Amino acid sequence: MIKIRIDIKKLGARILDALFLACCLLFLFFLMQLFCFTSFRIPSDSMEPALKDGDRILVNKMIKGARLFDVFAALDNEDVTIYRMPGWGSFKRNDILVFNFPYQMNRWDSVRMDVMQYYVKRCVALPGDTLEIRGGFYKVRGCDEQLGNYDAQQYLANLKHPEQYGIVVGTFPYDEQLGWTIREFGPLPIPQKGQMVMMNRTNCLLYRQLIGWEQKKKLRMEDGAILLGDSVVTQYRFQKDYYFVSGDNMANSQDSRYWGMLPEEYIVGKASRIWYSEDKFTEKPRWDRIMQKIK
Fold this sequence. Notes:
By secondary structure, this protein is α+β, with helices and mostly antiparallel strands.
């Protein structure tokens, strides 16, 4: 009897040790997900060929630092303040970024984070860049780097009537006077924190959503004047950094060409590696894509 009791005590101690270890590992996994890496599944073909529908990707949060915010307030569609942990670098052109979509469904007139909707796109312009699309090809002034998916840009450049293929030709900011299209777009200066812009008609059209989001006031034109709330403004200094992003499958991608610029605060991190991939039709693993580095 004594021996049985001792064995039960030892077994109980081992179970408690195992539970404690499991809790520690679970907590460590949670911290890794929160501060270092997280995983997302690619649900569409908008980033083909770099990413395919069914890829599961690792997202590096440490480059700019992980975000901290009130998740419950965000789920209630409230404005939230987003804080970033210290990061070890900066995003670069052609990085593939995962981010919260900066507009609510069917509401592109004002910036608001959709905490339940994530997009994956390629960064083609950084804060402070001036972006253009000429003949269907992305260009950043002063930069000789090839931006985005060249083959997709070539495909759009060669189409005589893109609208006949279901491609939306008109783009942000949807102004007939500017007349921007998917083949002739810009120049669009991408705002950088501290950058000053003059408030004229064009800049009001380009930046009204961003300035409205920063100031929590509506920017509008009235009788030739630019009003922020009830005050006339002649210039504005940006408080945040912004990016321009594009899908690699440009003929089927809802990206910055259509809804505008992406606030840095909404970026989760950089997609770094495909850790698993599954064919959506056969549900079989794509072994050749597993642990592939994302380029």
